[in-house]
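Dock adenosine-5'-triphosphate; give full complex structure.
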Amino acid sequence: MSRKSDAMTSYRLVDLLSKSNQYKTVIVKGWVKAFRANRFIALNDGSTIENLQCVVDFKKTDESILKKINTGAALEIEGELIESMGKGQSVEVMVKSIVIIGEADPNIYPIQPKKHSFEFLREKAHLRIRTTTFSSVMRIRSVLSFAIHKFFNDKGFCYVHTPIITGSDAEGAGEMFRVSVLDAKNPKLNQEGNVDFKQDFFGKETNLTVSGQLEAETYAQGLGNVYTFGPTFRAEKSNTTRHLAEFWMIEPEMSFYDLDMNMDLAEEFIKYTLNHILEKCEKDLTFLDQRLSTEEKTKPQNERSSMGLIEKIKFIVNNNFKRVSYTDAIEILKKSKPNKKKKFKYLIEEWGTDLQSEHERFLVEKHFNAPVILFDYPSKIKAFYMRMNDDKKTVRAMDILFPGIGEIVGGSQREERLDVLESRIEKMGIDKKELWWYLDLRRFGSTPHSGFGLGFERLVQFATGMSNIRDVIPFPRTPQNASF
Ligand code: ATP
Ligand code: MN
């Protein structure tokens, strides 16, 4: 079959399938998802979850071409777009010519048109984006990031880029990854016998950031309202379905905001982004909803979620988050059945203990059956920069807890009083000298201010119903794993 001149432009499937009656002769480019009966090509180009059925007349097509129409191969197809007689699609393409752009040997191409486990696909992370599930997840991830920027931009927030390499070791949010160019086998030592970071690239010890908050605060104290949205790194060995060593975090920081305003903003923000994907990602969500309900059916009855994915997202968008103080939450937990019957691994006995995820899940999934904002935590279990309450025991912290995910947001009103902040820093044994610039903010034009951090992948997890955080980021980094 000969190829006509390329006078026509080629179309992306998303446009072609949504406004199909505008087109007659089309050129499409994409990858073969499946090839049935030597006749029906399911072609996908990544612009939409939907495949385009391309019908080949095998009698008029070279055997050498037919042999190369394998799953995973890249093709350029020219043909007539017609109404489809078959069920499953409204239009299809009667193929006039095919160019094999890139072959995929069926004997070794790992992504076949059948169900692969997510574990298997993680090892093929460079090819898993060719599957329906991962392309849906990643399209939603992209739409969500855009919604985040749109939300803050519409509100007049300034987008700031805080450093990824940090010289401050007082961020306090977790274990850090060191950034160094010293010879690992033979680092220079100082007189005390320790590694001499004066000889290192920056002349001091530096790490990958665990949070952009402290730097974002400095910008909020000049620009008013700011946000960061960038990668953060934690070297904790938490091998869970909710932790990554490299993840993306959204951190708004607002001058003249108290904790209530902070909670209002966080709730509005989450609802806005989720509503945005309900509007923009209907087809991907419908597919993931069905995928999830099939997966749920494999679980024992009592562990199944009572709501489908879209239902869960709508529930968040349409209901108020429950706001509960830490102190009230402890009372609820103390009196709860699993505590009395000693079903919790960590029993709640006294005020002041940190909540474990089993407690958070009880509050969200059993007791309130709604997202929960816990606030006013004991100062002992929270970071030095959170504003001390008048009771001198609790700080103006807030965590937002989500069903199935646990903590999705951690935030607080920041301590703006120099003397109070200094005494907290001392009490917690943090080196005050390191924080000179942060303390300066309290010396010059200090204002009440607040902010929070939302883990982007946890939001994507919730929005897509994926149970493992490794499946919502293109190339996950976790302990013992940084392939690709
Ligand atoms: P957790 O208790 O769940 O480990 P955290 O209290 O250490 O979280 P924060 O320091 O408050 O987390 O970070 C803000 C947000 O970043 C969290 O609410 C969460 O959504 C997200 N987050 C924290 N650690 C991770 C991680 N290792 N991987 C992915 N997201 C994370
Ligand atoms: Mn937290």
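Observed: The chain has 14 helices and 17 strands.
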